[in-house]
Design goal:
Layout (H helix, E strand, L loop, with lengths): L5 E3 L11 E5 L4 H6 L10 H8 L8 H10 L2 E5 L1 E5 L9 E5 L2 H7 L5 E4 L2 H10 L7 E4 L12 H17 L8
Parallel strand pairs: 2-3, 2-6, 6-7
Antiparallel strand pairs: 1-4, 4-5
Pfam family, one: UDG
Keywords: Glycosidase, Hydrolase
EC number: 3.2.2.15
């Protein structure tokens, strides 16, 4: 990615039964190239979620999307666009936020929001108030650059996603 080039976020991934939202900061370079969330092969996002739900890994991106939807998990980014060289959150400049409060209003079943890094939480709080109707959580970054925790240590923290998803009622057929 060239210096000072502006990157735009990916579209949010959410279904009618979304009960949990995981917010990243902004898509990395490979995610932008592929149009797929967490596309870097060393990023632990998908591995962590599959381990949390004790299921085998999905092969295709479409299978991953079905996996998320079946568990009521939505994905999006805190930032609508920014300037950044590479994929490091510390390199973000001139950011513009997504309208996450409006997204939450459009998805009223979402009651838990998890930030997948401290940077995601920092940018969210810079632009949006924490809502009383939402429970917020901070997860250790799945990025390969965040190496101060082992996979197993990260997994223990990421289990909060399953607890949140399992604790909320799912849509019943016919509603």
């Amino acid at each position: 990615m060239e210096p000072n080039s502006r990157i735009e976020t990916l579209d949010p991934l959410a279904g009618p039964d979304s009960r949990v939202l995981i917010l990243g900061t902004a898509p990395g370079a490979l995610a932008m190239q592929s149009g797929e969330y967490f596309a870097h092969p060393r990023n632990q996002f998908w591995r962590l979620l599959f381990a949390v739900f004790e299921t085998s890994s999905a092969v295709s991106y479409q299978e991953k999307m079905k996996f998320l939807q079946a568990r009521g998990i939505a994905l999006w980014e805190v930032l609508e666009s920014c300037e950044r060289i590479g994929s490091s959150d510390s390199a973000i400049r001139n950011e513009r936020p997504n309208d996450v409060p409006r997204f939450l209003a459009q998805h009223p079943r979402i009651r838990h929001v998890f930030f997948d890094s401290r940077a995601a939480k920092k940018f969210y709080q810079k632009y949006h108030p924490l809502l009383d109707t939402i429970e917020y959580g901070l997860l250790p970054s799945p990025s390969p650059a965040y190496a101060s925790m082992t996979f197993e240590q990260k997994l223990e923290k990421w289990k909060a996603v399953r607890l949140a998803a399992d604790s909320l009622p799912q849509l019943q057929a016919g509603r």
